[in-house]
Structures are given as structure tokens and as C-alpha cells.
């Protein structure tokens, strides 16, 4: 960037020592302004919102008093907190586990390049291509207690229908199932491209040494895919933590919080009632950011250890 | 409460979130034209109407009569509250704001709205939704509320005469007969949002319960009515997840005897392809239960330039004058807010009679000076019926927990 700045500044015959500096800053300005306006400032505002006591009145007047960690205390004391925390952990953990395992199995399967494998692989991408509102609405229709196609199928084979979306014991499972379905293509694509990068000679060598298919997977594929797996899991984690639309469309976090996660709770506090509670809503949002950050740092640490 | 658009809501929320966090600091600037003539801004929650509609034509005409240009913007109804709050924060509120009635007291509490004295002839029960500490903060443009639609064919097959449905006992008896005849009973919306509370209130109030005491014996009776319907299979389990739109779709299949729904479904009812009728929601002991009022208020947000108020008053007077109110309410499929216009509506369309009666018995959610306390009561209330209907708690326990939450939130 400095070199480009010097080149453009040269014809102007400005004092030689200073101009590259200025030009460099000028070139940097767009990205710096962009980062500040769209990343740093919103983060700061969200933090600020979570540290003030907002009522509708003080929101309009802009004189909300600083209240320290009161909003965080409010949400910690809220009866929704621990269930929402547990649901967030279960939702993210179970989704990731199944998305990754199924994605990996499919990637290995498709890596064998048989006839029609390209077509089938393309079919698996469908959930990814659909807008979330479409897939979530479809799931919600399929899982409807009375007119849903899933219960119709269960009934026709003689199993009692399940209140997928309206029973407290099933609601979370239902949204997890839908989310797994949506997440598989991402895992499949990334892991598949990771597999392509493993040289086939290693497999040949393993085969010559008499390794079985299962051993080849555990001893060759899995270790060599570790970096790709790590980034897939991290991206999946960040993505799953903040999943909001699927849950909101399918259950609204209900019945009575039984599928509420931090993401839906934050929305509910901020926008879901007639009187918005911006402070607590922002506080929950910040907790989500912190959770994602912790795993991000873990990832970086893991990567460093691998390098050294 | 008109037809909600959930998808839009998420998008709206997102855009607000961006605005909230990004660029909406406290600059109090009013660059909009400030002296005589000029442009006056009107915001309304009717994005379904474009410039060729009667509604927008009326706005333009009112502006011309007052000697100003009107700039009208239609927002999604769930979006409008936050938009109005943000605009007030930045000091560029519209001159006239037409907004859903339970929101009026919130905006009034925030100091966003001017009071109004021009309330002659307006039904007091409708006006009450926009009152706080004895002052009125807007004029209802019209009202809608809930009643029971029924499917004639299903009732005939079950040998039920809708005229005999006068109280809860006779309604439950009718549902029992319908079920025995192999059809489905009743659909409503018990979703865990404001929409669900809106639908539960006619039963809650119809038992004589008060929002200030959720766990009273009457309140428990109302919730028990709903839970028993679900247990006995008179109502489908899907009510827990039904919006008013999806509950209507169930009714439109033609399998259901009753549906609790609003005036705004009248046009759809005509398209449903079966004969329907409408009866008021019965109260526990008989008679029409007070249903919550829906519908919007015309309000005048506070401006830095107080010279604008004279013209704003003219615009509002124009919108709420009898003739114009008739046009507006016909366009919106609302019941008018004054008895005089209501009579005209019934004369023109006898179908509306039952709705006019329902509106007369109706009650604002924020009435009884609840104001901004209402949302803090409504949320525990919807949590309560959700947990009772899904079998998590008994009606009494659920309402008891709700009362504890509501009491501590409204202290």
C-alpha cells in the first residue's frame, strides 16, 4: 500500500518524506472508516446500550442513566436465563455434532466419484440454496400437530402422532432437526474440498501397507483433515449460536421458553413486545458475542499449537 | 391489531437493529420545511395501500384543503413503533402518526405525542385505549375486534343452532356435539406473542377477571376453559403455534365449526366457499364478552416548530370527520369510532351489525390506566396460557407464576 501511495504522490512533486505517509493513510481511509462505522461503532453502541437503564422515555430523550451491570444482573435473575443458556448449548452442540458427522460421511462418500455423484451432491446443496424463511416455514408446516405430513406418516404406520412444535419436550428437538438439515450442505462442501487436497499417494501407500477402509479413514483422512475440520466447526459454531430465524418462524421460542435460545431471547427483549427493553436485549446479545469470541480464541490457540 | 407479517417483522427488526447500533445518535435536527404551506409528513401502518387507493387519495385531499402538500409513508405495523421512537429520538417525527392503539400509551409515556381535546362523539371505550392519566393522546380512526365465525354446514350436520350459543356452557356443549358428529370444534391463536394475548382476552375478561390480578378464580376458569377444549380434542393442539392467519387457514379448510377471528377476515370469509355466520364471543355467564379493541389512532407527535400544529389539527380533523371516517373505515374494513358513523355502516352493510355490537362491548388493552404496564402483564399472560395448554403446568399454577412475574415487573 505504501508503494502505491508513493507512486501516485510522485507526479504531484509534494515534499518527498511526508507524502507517502499521507497517501498511505488516504488509501487506508476507506477501510478504516468502513471498519469503524460498521463494526467498531455498532459494537460500542451495543455495549453502551447494555450498560444503561433505558425506558421508552429515556430512549427518546437520550438521557438514559448509566446503570453499570444492572442489565446483566436483570437477565441473570430472569427465570428464562438458565433454560435459554442450556438450550443455546444443546442447540449448538447437538446441531454441530450431527451436521459435522453427517457432512463428513457424505463428503467421504462423494469423494469416491461414482456415476451420478455430481448430481447427487448438487441435490444435497438444496437446503443451502433455499431462503431460510422458506425452509423454516416448510418445516413448520411439515411438523404441524394436526395437518403436518410427518404426523400423517406416523399415523399411517400406527405410531401416535407427536406434537412436534407445541409440546415443551419436543419443540427444541424439532428446531434442532431442522437446523441440522440446513447445516449439512455447508459441512459437506467444505469437508469435500478438504478431501480433494489430500494426495492420493498416501491412500495408495496405506492400501499397500494393508490398511482397511476404516483404518484409512481414521489414520489418514481424519488427521489430515484436522485443520479443515477445525475451521468448519468454528464457522458452524458461530453460525449456529446466532441462529434466530429458524426458531422464531417454527416455534417463536415457545411453548413458554422451551425452545428459547439467547438469540431469540435477545430479539424478544428488544423487539418482541410492545414496550422494547433495549438494555437487557443488548446484554443478552453481548453474552452471545462473548461466547463466540471464547471459541474463536480457542481456535487461534489450537492453530498456534499445531504450527509450533 | 391488524394482520401481522412475521417475515417482515424480522427484516424490520434487523434494519432497526442496524440503525439502533449504527447511526442513530442524539442530533436534534429539524430540517423539514417549517413555515406555512410546505410539506406535512404522515406515517401510517397500511403499506398495502398505494397512491391510487381511496385512503391515500383522502390524505392528499385533506392536505390540499389545509393548503399544504402531504407526504405519506406506509410502514409495516410492527415496524412503526420502533420507527416512531427512533424518529422522536432524532427530532424528526412526522406531523401526523397513525399507530396501533396499544402503542399510543407507550409513545405518550415517552413524551412523543401531544394531547388532544377533539374527542367529541367518540365511543369512550375506544378512546380509553389512548388515554393516560385522564388525558387523550389521539383519536381512534376506527376499530376492529374479535368474534366467532361459524361454518353453517358443520353446525347443521351436528344439529347445533348457533343462536343457542349464549355462554361458555352452551358453547362447550356445541363443540361436544360437533366432535361427536366427526368434525372439528374451534380454532384460535394461542401463540406466545401479543397476538395470543389478544385472542385470550375475550375469554379472560368474559369470566370477569382483571388484568391486575391474573391468578383470580375467574382467570383460572378462563384458562381452564381453553385447556379443557384442548384436552377433550375440541380444539386442535396446533393452536399453540397458530397466528390469527394460520388459525383462519384451518377454519377455511371447512372442517371446523368455529373460529375466533377479527373483522379483517370478512373478505376472506366470503371467499371461503362455504356458508358462514358470525356470533359475538360469549362471556362465562352469558352475554357478549368484552373483546380487546384493535385498530389505529390518529396522533400528533411533538414538533420543535409549534407553528405546525395548527395545520396538523386541520389534517386530523379532516381525517376524523364523519364523511371521511366512513370512507376510511369501509376501506380498512373497520367499525367506526362514533355511533353516528356506525349506524351508517350498518345501514349500508347489515353484516356489520354483529361487529358493531362487539366493538361496543370491547375494551382497550391499555385501558383502565394500565398504559405501559399492559405489555408487562401481557407477556407473563401468554407464557401462562402457553405452559397450561402445552401441559407443562396446571392453569392455576401457570397463572400464579404469571401474576408473580407481572406484579414484580409493574411495581
From TrEMBL, chain A:
It is found in: Cell membrane. PROSITE patterns: ABC_TM1 (PS50928). GO terms for biological process: transmembrane transport. InterPro entries: MetI-like, MetI-like_sf. SUPFAM superfamilies: MetI-like. Keywords: Cell membrane, Membrane, Transmembrane, Transmembrane helix, Transport. The chain crosses the membrane at residues 22-41, 84-110, 122-142, 170-192, 224-250, 278-300. Residues 85-299 form the ABC transmembrane type-1 domain. It comes from the Bacteria. Pfam families: BPD_transp_1 (PF00528). Belongs to the binding-protein-dependent transport system permease family. This is Sugar ABC transporter permease. It comes from Paractinoplanes toevensis.
Automatic annotation (TrEMBL), chain B:
GO terms for molecular function: maltose binding. The lineage of its organism: Bacteria, Bacillati, Actinomycetota, Actinomycetes, Micromonosporales. Keywords: Signal, Transport. Gene3D superfamilies: Periplasmic binding protein-like II. GO terms for cellular component: ATP-binding cassette (ABC) transporter complex, substrate-binding subunit-containing. It comes from Paractinoplanes toevensis. GO terms for biological process: maltodextrin transmembrane transport; maltose transport. SUPFAM superfamilies: Periplasmic binding protein-like II (SSF53850). Pfam families: SBP_bac_8. Belongs to the bacterial solute-binding protein 1 family. Residues 1-22 form the signal peptide. InterPro entries: SBP. This is ABC transporter substrate-binding protein.
Amino acid at each position: 500500500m505504501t508503494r502505491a501511495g508513493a507512486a501516485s504522490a510522485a507526479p504531484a512533486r509534494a515534499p518527498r518524506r511526508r507524502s507517502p505517509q499521507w497517501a498511505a493513510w488516504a488509501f487506508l481511509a476507506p477501510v478504516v472508516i468502513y471498519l469503524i462505522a460498521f463494526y467498531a461503532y455498532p459494537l460500542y453502541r451495543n455495549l453502551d446500550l447494555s450498560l444503561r437503564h433505558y425506558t421508552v422515555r429515556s430512549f427518546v430523550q437520550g438521557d438514559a442513566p448509566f446503570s453499570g451491570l444492572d442489565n446483566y444482573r436483570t437477565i441473570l435473575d430472569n427465570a428464562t436465563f438458565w433454560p435459554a443458556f442450556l438450550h443455546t448449548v444443546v442447540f449448538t452442540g447437538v446441531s454441530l455434532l450431527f451436521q459435522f458427522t453427517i457432512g463428513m460421511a457424505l463428503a467421504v462418500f462423494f469423494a469416491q466419484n461414482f456415476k451420478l455423484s455430481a448430481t447427487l451432491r448438487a441435490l444435497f446443496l438444496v437446503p443451502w440454496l433455499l431462503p431460510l424463511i422458506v425452509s423454516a416455514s416448510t418445516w413448520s408446516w411439515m411438523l404441524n400437530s394436526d395437518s403436518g405430513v410427518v404426523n400423517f406418516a406416523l399415523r399411517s404406520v400406527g405410531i401416535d402422532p407427536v406434537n412436534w412444535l407445541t409440546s415443551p419436550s419436543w419443540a427444541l428437538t424439532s428446531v434442532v432437526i431442522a437446523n441440522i438439515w440446513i447445516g449439512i450442505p455447508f459441512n459437506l462442501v467444505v469437508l469435500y474440498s478438504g478431501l480433494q487436497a489430500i494426495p492420493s499417494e498416501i491412500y495408495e501407500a496405506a492400501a499397500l501397507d494393508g490398511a482397511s477402509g476404516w483404518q484409512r479413514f481414521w489414520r489418514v483422512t481424519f488427521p489430515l483433515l484436522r485443520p479443515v475440520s477445525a475451521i468448519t466447526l468454528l464457522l458452524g459454531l458461530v453460525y449456529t449460536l446466532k441462529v434466530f430465524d429458524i426458531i422464531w418462524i417454527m416455534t417463536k421460542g415457545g411453548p413458554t421458553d422451551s425452545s428459547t435460545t439467547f438469540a431469540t431471547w435477545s430479539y424478544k427483549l428488544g423487539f418482541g413486545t410492545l414496550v422494547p427493553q433495549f438494555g437487557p436485549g443488548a446484554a443478552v446479545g453481548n453474552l452471545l458475542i462473548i461466547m463466540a469470541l471464547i471459541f474463536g480464541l480457542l481456535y487461534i490457540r489450537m492453530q498456534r499449537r499445531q504450527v509450533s | 391489531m391488524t394482520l401481522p407479517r412475521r417475515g417482515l417483522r424480522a427484516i424490520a427488526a434487523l434494519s432497526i437493529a442496524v440503525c439502533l447500533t449504527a447511526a442513530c445518535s442524539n442530533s436534534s435536527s429539524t430540517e423539514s420545511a417549517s413555515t406555512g404551506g410546505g410539506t406535512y409528513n404522515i406515517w401510517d401502518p397500511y403499506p398495502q395501500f398505494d397512491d391510487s387507493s381511496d385512503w391515500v387519495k383522502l390524505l392528499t385531499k385533506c392536505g390540499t384543503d389545509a393548503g399544504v402538500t402531504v407526504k405519506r409513508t406506509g410502514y409495516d405495523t410492527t415496524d412503526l413503533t420502533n420507527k416512531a421512537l427512533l424518529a422522536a429520538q432524532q427530532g424528526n417525527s412526522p406531523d401526523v402518526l397513525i399507530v396501533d392503539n396499544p402503542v399510543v400509551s407507550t409513545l405518550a409515556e415517552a413524551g412523543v405525542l401531544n394531547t388532544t381535546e377533539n374527542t367529541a362523539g367518540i365511543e369512550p371505550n375506544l378512546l380509553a385505549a389512548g388515554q393516560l392519566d385522564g388525558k387523550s393522546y389521539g383519536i381512534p380512526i376506527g376499530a376492529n375486534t374479535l368474534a366467532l365465525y361459524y361454518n353453517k354446514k358443520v353446525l347443521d350436520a351436528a344439529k347445533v343452532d348457533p343462536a343457542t350459543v349464549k355462554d361458555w356452557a352452551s358453547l362447550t356443549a356445541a363443540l361436544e356435539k360437533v366432535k361427536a358428529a366427526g368434525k372439528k370444534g374451534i380454532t384460535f391463536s394461542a401463540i406466545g406473542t401479543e397476538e395470543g394475548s389478544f385472542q385470550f382476552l375475550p375469554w379472560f375478561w368474559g369470566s370477569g377477571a382483571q388484568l391486575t390480578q391474573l391468578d383470580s378464580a375467574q382467570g383460572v376458569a378462563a384458562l381452564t376453559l381453553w385447556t379443557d377444549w384442548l384436552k377433550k380434542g375440541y380444539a386442535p393442539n396446533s393452536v399453540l403455534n397458530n397466528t390469527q392467519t394460520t388459525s383462519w387457514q384451518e377454519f377455511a379448510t371447512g372442517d371446523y365449526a368455529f373460529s375466533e377471528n377479527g373483522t379483517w377476515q370478512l373478505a376472506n370469509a366470503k371467499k371461503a366457499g362455504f356458508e358462514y355466520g358470525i356470533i359475538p364471543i360469549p362471556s362465562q355467564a352469558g352475554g357478549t364478552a368484552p373483546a380487546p379493541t384493535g385498530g389505529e389512532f390518529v396522533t400528533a407527535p411533538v414538533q420543535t416548530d409549534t407553528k405546525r400544529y395548527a395545520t396538523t389539527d386541520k389534517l386530523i380533523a379532516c381525517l376524523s370527520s364523519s364523511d371521511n371516517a366512513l370512507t376510511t373505515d369501509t376501506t380498512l374494513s373497520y367499525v367506526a369510532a362514533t355511533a353516528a358513523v356506525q349506524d351508517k355502516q350498518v345501514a349500508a352493510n347489515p353484516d356489520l351489525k354483529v361487529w358493531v355490537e362487539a366493538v361496543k362491548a370491547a375494551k382497550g388493552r391499555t385501558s383502565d390506566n394500565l398504559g405501559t404496564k399492559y405489555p408487562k402483564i401481557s407477556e407473563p399472560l401468554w407464557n401462562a396460557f402457553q405452559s397450561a395448554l402445552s401441559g407443562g403446568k396446571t392453569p392455576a399454577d401457570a397463572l400464579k407464576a404469571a401474576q408473580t412475574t407481572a406484579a414484580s415487573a409493574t411495581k
